[in-house]
Amino acid sequence: MPAFDLPPAELEKHRPAPDEPADFDAFWRATLGESGRTEPVVSVRPVDNGLRLVDTWDVTFRGFAGDPVRAWYTRPAGDPRPRPAVVEYAGYGRGRGLPHERLTWAAAGYAHLLMDNRGQGDQYGSGGDTPDPHAGAPGGPGPVVRGLLDPHDYHYRRLITDAVRAVAALRSLPGVDRDRVAAVGNSQGGGLALAVAGLVPDLAAAVVSAPLLCGILRALDLTDAGPYGEIATYLSVHRGAEAAARRTLSYVEGVSFARRAAAPAHFGVGLRDTVCPPSGAYAAYNRYGELTGRSPLREIHAYPFNQHEGGDAVHVRRQLSWLADVLAP
């Protein structure tokens, strides 16, 4: 796939005018307020992960509407001292899988919480363990179109709330330095990490690559791949639903969350990515922190010949180096 989005010089300056509802902040304040009245963690149970160098616990915490959300908590074995911590969000259609699948952050010395995606886990990976009991509103079968006609019913209202609550859950676990917690994710996970950066004012860092839900309306005009293609397919059948869908999507637009974020941020993007077009990532990056009255530390790495995989292991190495500096005592 050749480059199909804006040329690199234009991407670096891409700052589309904000298109967000007037009650964006009130919507999220009310949503998080409804789910944040109780202690987040329900249970923490040690599991045999088959490994000697890291320990893992099966965590259940309260997410949207108090629903139980599952997660793996993993950290270097035999050292209970408080550590900087990472909460990681998985990609679209993936669940938390098995406890030995995601070891990079724990191997780097972090306390690591991998959140399950409610109502997902059936498209790739090793499955998930968190149902979505609120998935009955009108919309298509895929997560990105569940409840698409009303922002209060939308799947991502629930998933973003879970992601915020995961930070609170991680901070309440033993062996975590509460002041040094980062949100990390790729693709859908990157979109969730960016939303968390905009909704959790004291987050220590955000590590975002190929973020979904950024520049959503432009992405719908550019690509039929991946989750955006599911939205287009739904609207091709429900021909009168576009206005309602646009309104719902405006409440989960990643650029709006980025504008409110204050944590240092590290971005990665493949310039041939048709799943999450690069103009969305650049729009979020270029407007990052603009409503905070500050200029947060941030950097972006582009991979001109890569698609949705972006910089892959090369980029992970950059993430590790950057986060070690940002979260240093």
UniProtKB/TrEMBL annotation:
<feature type="domain" description="Acetyl xylan esterase">
    <location>
        <begin position="1"/>
        <end position="324"/>
    </location>
</feature>
<dbReference type="Pfam" id="PF05448">
    <property type="entry name" value="AXE1"/>
</dbReference>
<dbReference type="InterPro" id="IPR029058">
    <property type="entry name" value="AB_hydrolase_fold"/>
</dbReference>
<dbReference type="InterPro" id="IPR039069">
    <property type="entry name" value="CE7"/>
</dbReference>
<dbReference type="InterPro" id="IPR008391">
    <property type="entry name" value="AXE1_dom"/>
</dbReference>
<feature type="region of interest" description="Disordered">
    <location>
        <begin position="1"/>
        <end position="22"/>
    </location>
</feature>
<protein>
    <submittedName>
        <fullName>Acetylxylan esterase</fullName>
    </submittedName>
</protein>
<feature type="region of interest" description="Disordered">
    <location>
        <begin position="119"/>
        <end position="142"/>
    </location>
</feature>
